[in-house]
Amino acid sequence: MEESVVWLQGLRVRYYTAGNSGPAVVLLHGGGADSAMLSWGLLIPHLSRDFRVFAPDWPGYGESDNLPGEYSFESLTAWLSDLMDQWGVRQASLVGVSMGGGGAIHFTLTHPERVQKLVLVDSYGFQRKAPFHRLSYWMVRASWLMEWSWALTRRSHWLTRWSLAQIFADARNISESLLDEVFTAVQNPSGQRAFLRFQQREMLPDRVLTCYLDRVGEIRAPTLIIHGDRDRLVPLSDVKEAAQRMPAARLVVIENAGHWPMREQPEKFNRLVSAFLKNTE
Fold first, then answer.
1. Is the pLDDT of residue 281 over 80?
2. Label partner for 114 (CA 20 to 30 A): which of 32, 84, 175, 220?
């Protein structure tokens, strides 16, 4: 696996590559304290046996510079399109989790000719409301409260573990090594601030701004939807509705998994993604 930096739209972008041959696969991580290595560090070596793998840090996350202006799926799609051009990748399969899944959906709707296959993991873009929507709406507008909570988390392994437990089905699956990775990540609040910008745009008083349920039927790329049966953030009912509307989609529900199945049940997750991309299911 190789770590690289490129300048794009005047901004620094960090990304990881692995694999010397095969079709291209682009891995898109989620929001919050996430990064390419946090979400995909266990999947990258698995896929690199058969694919050329690219895993960027979204703008504002990891070591990538933040975007000026609105933090929207439109701006992220333009950024990703330019980045793929920099890589010389005309077409790729996209794998996206949470916010990254929403980005993958928007990219596919905007540039269908550039997407070979699509894997959506506990994806944003299917739900009409956030959990505890009205409370969530007010919280993301209280920037001081968010900064205060991040500062507390940066000082406490216990609070970091508690936060991580909210996206796991079973807190016993949080290893010490994963806890250390996440605790290190939260020391840099850049990603959390980038995600807050995204949330402040997306959270309307009575709904989320971006819901693709009325458009997912346009997606013709073969699609695998993976969802944890105990995801507290994205309702499984909305995901089932989306899968039914997509002509080339298959839904796989992972039992005893939350919002981050690639880290909670990595072996099962890696097998599912690899088999789908290789057509060996």
1. no
2. 32
